[in-house]
Design brief:
233 residues; alpha/beta; Glucose Oxidase, domain 1; two-stranded parallel ribbon; 30% helix; elongated
């Protein structure tokens, strides 16, 4: 993969929260205003981790029925999936689509898998499926999931290194993801360098509105004057 953002550029957007990144994308990539981000709520047991920024490693899972693969084929699929997780440019975020009619019926994510994925370089997971072992999951591993669940049922990998869609966000392997407790967004690589400045401009405009609204006697006429001058977003 060529023309990747520098570590400093990734650090700069990691300092932003995901809503701010979405706001900035509306300025630097206006065609992205209505897509490319999650549109359903997540369980986020570790909001204190802040923003995660990494390149997507992807897979799909099922858990409601036993696999039709042989034990040997299932083991090989799982090992090949882990090889995908540990390959390529980092840092990485794992994005898993649960294909079952009841997503999250069985949890792929618990104490063991969070530890394995973290050891392979993953910062965290984004999934419409479920998570468990919340107190015992790998320390510092980010978790955004559709639900919590107690059992892993017959959970297994169906495919890996493939396009996935999680809570409305379509992801290709290698996409750059920005995520926090609010959700996640795919960030086009060619605008990463432009996001901090756009975010700063938005923050300046919003600060004018916020400060004015907190003044005694603030009125709709004041708001009209400020918005007419281009303040806000």
């Amino acid at each position: 993969m060529s023309n990747l953002p520098t570590d400093a550029q990734l650090d700069a957007i990691r300092a932003l929260d995901t809503p701010t990144v979405c706001n900035a994308l509306e300025i630097v990539a206006p065609q992205r205003r209505g897509h490319g981000y999650t549109v359903e709520p997540f369980v986020c047991p570790r909001p204190e981790l802040g923003s995660l920024v990494g390149y997507a490693r992807t897979g799909t899972i099922r858990s409601m029925q036993p696999s039709e693969r042989s034990a040997a084929a299932s083991t090989e699929m799982r090992l090949a999936y882990y090889e995908h997780i540990g390959s390529g440019q980092g840092p990485t975020i794992t994005v898993i689509e649960d294909l079952d009619p009841i997503p999250g019926y069985g949890a792929w994510w618990g104490e063991v898998n969070t530890s394995i994925h973290q050891g392979l370089g993953s910062l965290g997971v984004i999934t419409n499926g479920s998570i468990r072992d919340l107190d015992d999951s790998a320390e510092g591993f980010g978790l955004l999931a559709g639900m919590t669940a107690p059992s892993h049922a017959w959970v297994r990998v169906e495919a890996y290194d493939c396009p996935v869609t999680v809570h409305g966000m379509a992801v290709e392997p290698g996409d750059l993801i920005h995520a926090d407790r609010h959700g996640a967004v795919v960030v086009p690589l060619d605008v990463v360098a432009d996001l901090p400045a756009a975010a700063a401009d938005i923050a300046t405009a919003e600060a004018r509105l916020i400060e004015a609204s907190r003044q005694p006697g603030f009125s709709a006429a004041d708001l009209r004057r400020l918005l007419g001058g281009g303040a806000g977003h």
